[in-house]
Automatic annotation (TrEMBL):
Keywords: Membrane, Transmembrane, Transmembrane helix. This is GtrA family protein. Residues 46-163 form the GtrA/DPMS transmembrane domain. The chain crosses the membrane at residues 44-65, 110-130, 136-157. Pfam families: GtrA_DPMS_TM. The lineage of its organism: Bacteria, Bacillati, Actinomycetota, Actinomycetes, Mycobacteriales. It is a multi-pass membrane protein. It is found in: Membrane. It comes from the Bacteria.
């Protein structure tokens, strides 16, 4: 007597596959909405991304222009990375290209960048007077902390004052 295997229940497999695809699609949509949406969380993720990209641009310009000296390389890197960051924030971070023209965005955002530069310079000057001869690692750490705090304040200033909330 020959036994035959039980028939395969393809209905359950198709249903499981459809449920898996539906779940994957829902996760993809939530991720897409998180990255592309206009919530403050979405904007902050893009803000941090722009910060990383333009910091890398600054470092590249600084290294490439080393021959002109630290001051010139720093100025060129700061100016170029700030202009690129401002435009990326206008178009990508805050979706404000239709609401905010290029020149006012550059002027207002550039003013915020200048305030940040002054704040880090003052923090370093204060640290040097309180802790003379501090190691470079202390100074770099201080600049990172001050820059991080300023970055958070700058995000809310850009979101609320420069680019307005996304509509």
């Amino acid at each position: 007597m020959t036994t035959h295997p039980a028939p395969l229940d393809t209905t359950a497999l198709v249903r499981s596959g459809a449920e898996l695809a539906e779940g994957a699609h829902a996760h993809w949509c939530r991720g897409r909405d998180l990255l592309l949406g206009d919530s403050s969380t979405s904007q902050f993720i893009r803000y941090a991304f722009v910060g990383g990209v333009t910091s890398a641009l600054y470092a590249l310009v600084f290294v490439l222009l080393d021959a002109v000296g630290d001051v010139g390389a720093n100025a060129a890197g700061m100016i170029l990375s700030t202009v690129v960051a401002n435009e990326m924030h206008r178009r990508l971070t805050f979706h404000a290209a239709g609401r905010k023209a290029w020149l006012p965005a550059q002027t207002e955002s550039g003013g915020l960048a200048a305030v940040a530069l002054v704040a880090t310079t003052l923090a370093l000057a204060a640290a040097n007077s309180v802790v003379p001869g501090a190691p470079w690692s202390f100074e770099v750490g201080l600049v990172l902390v001050v820059t991080g705090l300023i970055g958070i304040v700058k995000f809310f200033a850009l979101r609320g004052l420069v680019f307005g909330s996304a509509r």
